[in-house]
Amino acid sequence: MQFVEEIVVDEFLPTVRSLLAGDLRDRGFTQSEVANVLGISQSAVSKYAHGDVTVNDRIATDDRVQELVEQLGTGLAAEEISPVQALIELEVLIRELEAGGDLLAQLHEEAVPELADHGSSFRVHDPESDLRTSERVLSSLRRGLRILETASGFTALIPAVGANLVACTPDAEDVDDVAGVPGRIFDVKGRATVPADPEFGVSEHVASVLLAARRHGADVSAGINITYDPELIDELAAQGHVAAEFDESDDVASSVGAAIEDDPAATVLYQTGGIGIEPLIYVLGTDAESVADTVRSLV
């Protein structure tokens, strides 16, 4: 009796680790660095490098495997993805390949021929496409945050209430589908400080503005709040953004919705404040990186 997990452990992982180790070595990683990134010993890396590990050719030549190895190698080398994110991407691919009739399912049936006659789909793990989508949103958000953290002068744009860069899934319906920075981004002694890794469901205010804009037709998936200044509005307009004012003293969702309906092309929303309300600008965009780039252009 052999489980599909044994195929993963005995065939898939050694093959993918070998391919990924080779990819990283080709990018200039030392043996020690490859071992650290992959979470394996240097002796194991040496075995991969010298061909002492059996590689499954069917797995190694699968287009999806090769594409993911290239993607992970590029991301790990550029430090745009972490080893944990790489693990999640591989986990998602494994689940896909375990689906009935797919590569790992075929290898499983060949190892246990009786399964082929059973007539069932042997998808041991249900694939969760939402996992891949969510991780991509978080990855984009992390890249956007790095842009802001390294942008000279960004702290001048952080409002007293703090800034938050948020991004949502394609089918976002509520704040749980929007990722942001827990506790917001603050100016600490002249430095933009991100207190924790981004998570879903931690932003209410900026997330609400983003969701309201989307519900009323705005083609946006990310946003940030920055301090209000008429000169910033002019600069954003000069860059080609359409600005629309809304009233935050009223129901935010309704006010944002009305502003978007008046001008569906608006990617900059602003309110000039009121009693107990700090004036703010909300910059919206297709993803977290583009929003962060827009804000960086203002400093």
From TrEMBL:
PROSITE patterns: HTH_CROC1. It comes from the Archaea. InterPro entries: Aldolase_II/adducin_N_sf (IPR036409), Cro/C1-type_HTH (IPR001387), Lambda_DNA-bd_dom_sf (IPR010982), ThiN (IPR019293). One of its GO terms (molecular function) is DNA binding. Pfam families: HTH_3, ThiN. Residues 27-48 form the HTH cro/C1-type domain. Gene3D superfamilies: Class II aldolase/adducin N-terminal domain, lambda repressor-like DNA-binding domains. This is HTH cro/C1-type domain-containing protein. It comes from Natrinema hispanicum.
